[in-house]
């Protein structure tokens, strides 16, 4: 087996590179899976007219529409206000459609994250930071997207789904979830999955409270555990997994691939043990 070659990446500026927001919009519209929103996007409407403005993108999946605003450079109050207005107009136009606001910016400051988090439980909004990178001396610009604010509890945790609901919604990543559940049962045999529409909850010992959540996405399984950063979470990072850190609800997140759950069972078990011990 040949050793993979590491490449040097340097941060770039979209403005300095002369890349306009329209170019970014069109590229995301053609490649919506890069946002890893969860459900498969089956349609992308570019520059849809809403009121007196034009929303950059409306990404449509089988159960949700994502009203998306893009900002090159540092996030500002104007774009925050704009996405809230677009979201409100869109949900009024389509009251029977689940509408989620998505704000994408090159530089998301903690100031605006704090402000948005104040109303995130009332307005379903996702904030994504996009980073422009250059690899070595290549003339190409690479975009990396990191979700810095997830949806915060809009769905009622008692809203039931079923295994079939998730298999239809996340066909590619449900096998990862099933393997993870098998690993969890090796740690604690009483663990049972509860299939809700917002996530798959893992409960144990007959308790109603969830200590671990699974959110199958497009390419990865997002695992959230109710635990602070600890030795178990550091082991995941050391193993090269896609660690998301602690979200605004205090849940630690890590996005796992099929290779992660099949090849790194021990650090995953350590994380499950830690979360389970805190839930007792």
Structure write-up:
- This protein has 280 residues and is an alpha+beta fold.
- It folds into two domains: 9-149, Trna Endonuclease, Chain: A, domain 1, CATH 3.40.1350; 163-279, Aspartate Aminotransferase, domain 1 (Alpha-Beta Complex).
- It contains eight helices and 13 strands.
- It has helices spanning 21-30, 77-93, 110-119, 163-169, 174-187, 231-238, 258-263, 265-279, and strands at residues 9-12, 43-50, 53-60, 65-74, 99-107, 125-135, 142-149, 192-195, 200-203, 212-216, 221-225, 242-246, 252-256.
- Strands 1, 2, 3, 4, 5, 6 and 7 form a seven-stranded mixed β-sheet that branches. Strands 8-9-10-11-13-12 form a six-stranded antiparallel β-sheet.
- The chain starts with 8 loop residues before the first strand and ends with a helix.
- Residues 154-158 have low confidence and may be disordered.
């Amino acid at each position: 087996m040949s050793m993979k070659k590491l490449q040097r990446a340097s941060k770039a500026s979209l403005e300095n590179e002369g890349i306009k927001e329209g170019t970014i919009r069109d590229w995301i519209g053609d490649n919506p899976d890069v946002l890893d929103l969860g459900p498969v996007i089956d349609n992308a409407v570019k520059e849809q007219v809403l009121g007196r403005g034009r929303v950059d993108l409306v990404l449509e999946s089988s159960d949700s529409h994502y009203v998306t605003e893009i900002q090159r450079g540092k996030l500002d109050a104007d774009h925050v206000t704009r996405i809230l207005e677009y979201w409100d107009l869109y949900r009024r136009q389509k009251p029977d459609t689940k509408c989620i606001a998505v704000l994408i910016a090159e530089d998301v400051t903690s100031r605006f994250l704090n402000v948005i988090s104040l109303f995130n439980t009332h307005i379903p909004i996702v904030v994504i930071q996009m980073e422009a990178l250059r690899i070595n001396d290549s003339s190409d610009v690479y975009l990396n997207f990191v979700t810095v604010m997830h949806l915060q509890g809009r769905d009622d945790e008692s809203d039931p789904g079923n295994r079939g609901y998730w298999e239809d919604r996340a066909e590619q990543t449900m096998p990862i979830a099933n393997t993870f559940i098998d690993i969890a049962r090796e740690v604690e045999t009483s663990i049972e999955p509860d299939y809700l529409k917002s996530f798959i909850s893992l409960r144990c010992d007959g308790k109603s409270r969830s200590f671990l959540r699974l959110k199958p996405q497009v390419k990865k399984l997002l695992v959230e555990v109710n635990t602070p950063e600890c030795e178990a979470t550091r082991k995941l990072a050391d193993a090269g997994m896609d660690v998301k850190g602690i979200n605004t609800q205090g849940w630690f997140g890590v996005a796992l691939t099929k290779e992660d759950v099949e090849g790194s069972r021990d650090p995953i078990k350590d994380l499950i043990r830690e979360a389970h011990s805190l839930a007792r």
